[in-house]
Amino acid sequence: MNKLLLLVDLGRLKAYRWEQGEQFEKPRLRFLEEWNTNVQNHLREEVTDQAGQYRKGSVAGGPSDLSDGEEHNLDLERRKRALRGIARHMDELIQKHDPQGC
User: Of 4, 64, 66, 86, which is the most exposed, with the fewest CB atoms less than 10 Å away?
Assistant: First the structure.
């Protein structure tokens, strides 16, 4: 009996094959692959502008008219993209190693 074992968190996916049969004395795990998302990267590695670099309005004004550098749910968007990537990679692994189902 062979099964696919996936260990997943937001930043990493590890895939193992659970192998058990008469040819083995004991059940064993065989490492298949590891896949990482970019969630563990620091935000400064992905975002290039600095807070206050761009003006809010089209009329030049005082220093209060500069952008306040809000993240605008950037952390939530990064998490959502990481989850989509992990789900897509999990689907590929299941199709590749265990096409009968999970």
Answer: 64
Domain map (residue ranges) of the chain = 1-42+75-102
Residue 15 and residue 89 in contact, taking contact as beta carbons nearer than 8 Å: no
Condensed to tens digits (0 to 9), the pLDDT of residues 32-60 reads 999 888 776 666 566 655 555 555 554 55
Q: Is 27 helix (H, G, I), strand (E, B) or coil?
A: coil
Q: Which helix (H) or strand (E) holds 34?
A: strand 28-36
Count of alpha carbons within 13 angstroms of residue 87, beta-carbon side: 6
Q: Is the pTM of this model over 0.70?
A: no
What is the spatial distance between Cα 33 and Cα 18, in angstroms, rounded to a whole number?
Answer: 13
Give the residue among 46, 50, 47 at the shortest CA–CA distance from 67. Answer: 50
